[in-house]
Amino acid sequence: MTLTIENLDVRYGGVHAVRGLSLTVAPGEIVGLIGPNGAGKSSTLHAIVGLAPATGSVRLDDRDLVGLRPEDVARSGVALVPEGRRIFAELTVEENLRLGLAARRGRGAPDLSPVYELFPIVHEFRSRQAGALSGGQQQQLAIARALVAEPDVLLLDEPSLGLAPSVVDVVFDALVAIKERGLAVLLVEQRAQRTVAAADRSHVLAHGELRLTLGPAEAQDTDKLVAAYLS
Amino acid sequence: MTVAILNIDWQTLADGLALGAIYALMAVGIGLVFGVLRLVNFAYGQLVMAGAFALALASQWGWPVWAAIVLCFAVVLTLSIAMEHLVFRPLRGHSPAVMLVATFAVAFLMQSIALLWFGSLGKIATSLAYLNRPWTLAGVDIRKIAVVAVVVAVVCLVLLQVLLTRTEIGLHMRAASMDFSTSRMLGVRANRVISLAVLLSGALAAVVAVMLTVQSPLVTPDFALRDTIVVLAGVVVGGLNRPIPATLGGFTIGFATGVLGGALPTNQSQYLPALVFAAVILVLLVRPRGLFDFSKTVERV
After folding, report:
1. Rounded to whole angstroms, how far apart are CA atoms A26 and A183?
2. Coil, strand, or helix at residue B141?
3. What is d(CA B28, CA B79) in angstroms, rounded to the nearest whole number?
4. CA-based, 20 to 30 A from B239: which of A21, A169, B145, B232?
């Protein structure tokens, strides 16, 4: 299913965090959303999942998501991997995954094997307390938890934040594999160059507005990136 | 037969255990709602009071015991649901202070209604009075209610533990009490989890009403008010945010109150609340995070 955002506005009191943003993410695509701190990237994700007050249109194919409660957005097939992972540290890895199943739409016994295949570490440590995992392992768990519900759209909020370079590779490799499974992936990141290289297209956001769209070929064009950030 | 120190005999110990068990149930009832709503329900005692009046009316009407208990559950559960829909749900997301003051208002409203309907002299619930008679075990007399209270409390806690750890909805409730907004984002239905917590909490209040009316059959509009304050102190002493420490806190303060109440000479029993609350303050000074919170503070980079 295709995620379509048109003229999205997010306001917190007097702060106009996102201004008239439009973008689409089709199945089998990674779309990057990059930009400096405070550009409105996370606010965009929060607006999509119903955690921030939004006006404009957010649609999953023909279904309008604006105004839905967060749990209903999740149950429509949109999963968010939140910033800071938000793992339930006191629960086991497996219980964290079972929570992810809350948004699952299909009936019958859930099949976790595709997720375990993608993140073997999650399978290996499934009976451990999630709080005992390293940051990188927790990030993998957070993505796995979002995937067990078999969503159509995966939103990620800075998944590489604070991770060692080798783990960043694991995360980006996983995103490519997820995209190849036909999900629509919207990736908010600080690692601009890496994101532009991995995504089918990347939008640069500044002051809540879309300033520039870059293709993977432009990942090495640092002048253009820097100019977009400073504009 | 006595246990050396103070004036504690087996009956006093058994009464202490029974009061501890009842207070533990109240602590769990308060803790369940606090977990999902971050709301200390000060009106919890008034739910117990309403259940107690239901039992008193049923015995006045000559209803059989089972029907009296059914009426008690029906009244308490209905009031719990009404409280959730009329007060908790509209105020959800407001500051804890607003919610706490709202529960104060609900508490005094319910107490005033009880005063209007039943008067200050109260009514007597006698249906289960026979449980006050003793069982003689190995030459020791123990009131039946002491044994019943402990058994019922253990059964309730075990059932609740099974529900929380073995079922999907239980997992959702635990997750919601740890991080509500992330749980919702994962698809956990907020209203369902809150309704279940409120219902379970109400069911425990009904159980408490049945057992407290056996111990003190005179039901007045301030019935269970003092107990609620003591239990709240116990919950805070145990550790408000964590279910097992909160339960232990409730049990401990109930046990201490029961044993001290039995051990103090009759002419000094007016010192009991002062002693209990002095102990509460002392514990909070020494262990501000709660008596039973042994978790270490872990800082992550």
Report:
1. 8
2. strand
3. 18
4. B145
Q: Give how many domains chain A has, as a whole number.
A: 1
Q: Cβ separation of B185 and A80 shorter than 8 Å? A: yes
pTM for the model stands at 0.88
Burial class (CB in 10 A: 0-12, 13-18, 19+), B124: middle
Residues in chain B within 8 Å Cβ distance of A86? 179, 182
Across the interface, whether the CB atoms of B186 and A100 are under 8 A apart is answered: yes
Tens digit of each residue's pLDDT (9 = 90 or more) over B221-264: 999 998 998 999 888 888 776 778 888 989 999 998 888 888 88
Measured between alpha carbons, how far is residue B270 from residues A201, B9, B81, B259, B273 in Å? 76, 20, 37, 14, 7
Q: What is the mean pLDDT of residues A123-134?
A: 95
Return the residue matching tokens 């929570």. Answer: A99
Give CA–CA dist B52/B69, Å, rounded: 10
- CB contact under 8 Å between B178 and A91, yes or no, is yes
Query: Where do the structural domains in chain B lie, given as residue ranges?
Result: 13-224
Rounded to 10 deg, the angle between the B168-178 and B10-37 helix axes is 80
Chain B CB contacts of A102 below 8 Å: 168, 172, 183, 186-189
* pLDDT band for position B4 (cuts 50, 70, 90): very low
Amino acid at A36: P
Structure token digits, residue B80 = 């719990």
Taking the C-alpha atoms of residue B73 and residue B71, their distance in angstroms, rounded to an integer, is 5
Where does A51-178 show beta strands of DSSP type E? 54-60, 63-64, 78-81, 153-157
**Are B298 and A131 in contact (CB < 8 Å)?**
yes
Chain B nearest-CA residue for A70: B185
Residue B274: count other Cβ atoms within 10 Å of its Cβ.
Answer: 9
pLDDT in tens, A84-101: 999 999 999 999 999 999
Interface of B with A in 35-94 (CB under 8 A): none
Neighbours of B210 (CB within 10 A): 27
Domain extent, residue A23, equals: 3-230
Q: Calculate how close chain A gets to B12, using CA atoms only, in Å.
A: 39
Residues, chain A: 231
Q: What is the ipTM of this complex?
A: 0.92
Q: Which of B186, B189, B298 is opposite residue A99, by nearest beta carbon?
A: B186
Q: What is the pLDDT of residues B176-204, one digit of tens each?
A: 989 999 999 999 999 999 999 999 999 99
CATH number at residue A167: 3.40.50.300
- Whether A74 sits inside 8 A of B186 (CB atoms) is yes
Rounded Cα distance between B31 and B206, Å, is 16
Q: What is the least distance, in Å, from the CA of B172 to any CA of chain A? A: 7
